[in-house]
Design brief:
alpha/beta; homodimer; 14 strands; 4-stranded parallel β-sheet; TIM Barrel
Amino acid sequence: MHVDGNRIVEIGPPREADVTIDALGKALLPGFVNTHTHAAMTLFRGYADDMELQSWLSAKIWPAEARLTPDMAYWGTKLACLEMIKSGTTSFNDMYFFMDHAARAVDEMGIRAVLSEGFIDLFHEDRAEEELRKTRTAIDRISSMRNPRITPAVGPHAVYTVSESSLRALRAMADERACPFHIHVSETKGEVEGARKDHGKTPAAYLDAIGVLGPRVVAAHSVWLEEAEIATFARRGVAVAHCPVSNMKLAVGRAMPLAAMQRAGVTVSLGTDGAASNNRLDMFESMKMAALLHKFAADSATVAPAAEVFDMATRGGARALGLDAGSIEVGKLADVILVDLHRPEMTPSHNLVSNLVYAATGDCVDTVICDGRVVMEGRRVRGEIEILAKAGEIAANLVGGAS
Amino acid sequence: MHVDGNRIVEIGPPREADVTIDALGKALLPGFVNTHTHAAMTLFRGYADDMELQSWLSAKIWPAEARLTPDMAYWGTKLACLEMIKSGTTSFNDMYFFMDHAARAVDEMGIRAVLSEGFIDLFHEDRAEEELRKTRTAIDRISSMRNPRITPAVGPHAVYTVSESSLRALRAMADERACPFHIHVSETKGEVEGARKDHGKTPAAYLDAIGVLGPRVVAAHSVWLEEAEIATFARRGVAVAHCPVSNMKLAVGRAMPLAAMQRAGVTVSLGTDGAASNNRLDMFESMKMAALLHKFAADSATVAPAAEVFDMATRGGARALGLDAGSIEVGKLADVILVDLHRPEMTPSHNLVSNLVYAATGDCVDTVICDGRVVMEGRRVRGEIEILAKAGEIAANLVGGAS
């Protein structure tokens, strides 16, 4: 494979080049696209596990998040990028706070991201105004970086935390600025019941009724989607970010309706969710968990086969984020990885895709190239020691302040 | 921690020793005990995934197994031991074929194992006699090695593949030779329905009625156990080997009744199952999957918390196999591991046990000590390159012969 600039220009035998990488004993694959995470929540990894969602948020996460600073968001995002690079992810779709600082981290780490400032107004007009200002500022600042790897987006948290007028305003802002739209949809049964009560509609039906659904919307989770909503997603071109690890860990109550989405032609991609609800930003693990969860839930060992799940993590993700990537083809973005095959869990080599989905983890990744540039080689990433030290220290202080 | 011979003799600050290991930045933990696997099935890893259990066995696994030779079992077991060492497992409970050759592999690799010759007579008297002879020979040969790390066992496959007289004969053999007893119990609903039809009883009730249950029995899976059978297991001292990854991948239909077993006081341990139905012999992954599966199945994020699952994988496993191991205590066997904490997924360090269960994989293991001897240091295991080459070649030939 030959790369010129940031594109794959030829697939063929070795020829002269400025940089040559020896891939003997390794598999060349598209980098993974993680379509739902909260990168800087790496700072909360392991801080509050095995708790119910509501007490987890109110007793642990929100008080700590209230103390979050731009510098913390920057280092938390650096740590997340480091972990994602080391497990073969070249693009991610993020929603969190201080996103201009997150953008600086992504810029330095060399991978690709769609960054949305998490928007929560809790139906207060004053807060809505303040939040709209924050989103606008984040988009302005990120745009002014003019980094082709980094795309600003709008990120209304969910229908139970964002008012209708704010959702409409964010839709207008996304249209005006040509931005993607990132939102949690129907993660829990409670969310669906709440929407029926408050809006007389299920979350996706409500979002469609107020005109915010469209081709560049990524709907995270979508666990409790009904048939009619799935049809709406297909019609509107909404992509789903399926987060199997998070859904199981937080006990959302069922498996998302994968088969129905596939039948309807909805783009399904995979996300890790944040490190507080997973706690590992490894797309290999999310692939295996997706394959296993749907087999278990459907009572059939043949559903969600390896090739299908691998496709969700690569092509599906690229489609969801509108990236010209996700496969090794001439003309595509050079977002690729090399996976080491000389490992016990990758032996024997009866079936590469089976080994990738069911046996590998991110530790099998040897080399990562994003936008035509090497960001990891031989598992070495520039700045790793400093990132671990700084992020570890910041996380300890952030949480220590809570006690 | 100080080790003398094969035991932990002191827990305290460094002092003079023949061998000193620097554990700075690492966590000292008990090695994992994998209580259900078919080690040499590493040769079939990725060979036939995403298939229904019965067609998988009859079209793929059985024809290939018919061509298995002692040499293949030896190399397949070497590969499994290598993978288990590299993911922190120091003891495993195995059931497969040519177990005297598997024993040679375990002897060389330096870890601990309970080895049972897989016994299937399909209710044919001739075959039963032949199988009993094989089991007796395996026990004799393994015993004659006089390796304190290796314990021979009896391994009747299941109630639907082994006759009552053979089950009774194996119980007598286990008593006579003081051997553990390893059997699959109630893995699928079909197995339970079959037992009701054939024996008028559920599998565990039937096994108890014919007198084979007792303190050194490990019952793999036990997914469909009913309340009365759980009480029987508790009364008889039967330990369960829970295999969450395999259960989900093969879609066994429900989560095993963990809470009921815990209430009844049944010893619950963790197994990976074989590489054909998992496909990774990594106890870290099995811990996470256990924690997630039970949260998902019970609709509660608080069940199967990290500490409980970690205990199943260490103390529970040691209890199941009757090993004086599973914790770092003076007098216990020196079966311990060092886990590297300077890694992105282990940062920050709010909670070590949460990080181990939810964020780590076997790749975090740096050093493995079994029976007081170092079997891995700095992730280097003696003979790795040869094992990967030989096992890979043998597996390709074994399966190539099928087409």
